Amino acid sequence: MTLKxxxxxxxxxxxxxxxxxxxxxxxxxxLVYDWVSASGSLMEWKTGYSTTNTLLxxxxxxxxxxxxxxxxxxxxxxxxxxxxxxxxxxRTIVGRKSTEEMQQALIVIRNKAL
Length: 114
Prior knowledge:
Blueprint: H1 2-6, E1 10-15, E2 18-22, E3 31-36, E4 41-46, E5 53-56, E6 59-67, E7 73-74, E8 82-93, E9 96-99, E10 103-108
Antiparallel strand pairs: 1-2, 2-3, 3-4, 4-5, 6-7, 6-8, 8-9, 8-10
């Protein structure tokens, strides 16, 4: 996911649970990431491919946040240069719910011009 986002190009849609990118060399293609809270899954799909990839399962919480070139938080897509992904997953082992600590990744969108 990190590699694909770094190379993704233009972010065209954003919400805390949804990202949509258009590659810099192909305006007819899109790359989409969606967190489906009902199933607790992070999904990835790209036009032209017949399969949807499940990147995370058992995810209790996931959110995307945007950052500008100075890495200050922003909600303006045109100012975005980076994004963070925060998630918390769990699973049940022998009848007890086991939860991992909150995880976070900060990703720079390299192919997006400033």
